[in-house]
Amino acid sequence: ADPDPLQDLCVADLNASISVNGFPCKPLHEVKSNDFFYDGLSKEGNTTNVFGSKVSIGDVLAFPGLNTLGVSWNRVDFAAGTGVNPPHLHPRASETLVVLKGKLLVGFITTTHVLYSKVLKAGEMFVFPRGLVHFQLNVGKGKAFFLAAFNSQNPGVVILPTTLFVTTPSIPNEVLSKAFQIDAKVISDIRSKLGS
Ligand code: GLV
Ligand code: MN
């Protein structure tokens, strides 16, 4: 989904003082093999949190060699039991995932409220169309993890529970009570459990 590159490579200079769509290129004479290497997805993420999951991100900010190339990866780990990657969407990319360990229920919802979902085991893939809400739930006995590939160097993520309940400043209670048909007590309960 990203624009096409206009040169072979353009390792991001994340600290450049000018701002462009993406990042300016670091000077070619400073570019090293290690600029095209990233090991941030090699380790299991720490899933000790309310969701029981951890997304390790390999976008252009973590891996500057991806700049202008239109691709990136994430790794998502799930705690044994009920680890969930909560409903979220990526504004700038479709996502394909391949399960490497465990058993996961994955699904996405269309703009006409149809859920497409399936239980996947190691080696199996699924695709979430760009911009649609999706989730994954560990339904196996042990831990699980997958790798996900995106057709953007910077897919972005809108996580629905935190986007709605953990903002600065807060979305007015009147909005959330009417939208979800719940009272202020339920709202503050959700907020405190999600850590705000
Ligand atoms: C999983 O859906 C992810 O966005 O990493
Ligand atoms: Mn996703």
UniProtKB/TrEMBL annotation:
GO terms for biological process: plasmodesmata-mediated intercellular transport; regulation of root development. Mn(2+) binds at H88, H90, E95, H134. Oxalate binds at N74, N85, H90, E95. InterPro entries: Cupin_1, Germin, RmlC-like_jellyroll, RmlC_Cupin_sf. Disulfide bonds join C10-C25. It is found in: Secreted, Extracellular space, Apoplast. One of its GO terms (cellular component) is plasmodesma. Keywords: Apoplast, Disulfide bond, Manganese, Metal-binding, Secreted, Signal. Residues 39-188 form the Cupin type-1 domain. Gene3D superfamilies: Jelly Rolls. Coiled coil: none annotated. GO terms for molecular function: manganese ion binding. SMART domains: Cupin_1. PANTHER family: GERMIN-LIKE PROTEIN SUBFAMILY 3 MEMBER 3 (PTHR31238). Belongs to the germin family. This is Germin-like protein. It comes from Tetracentron sinense (Spur-leaf).
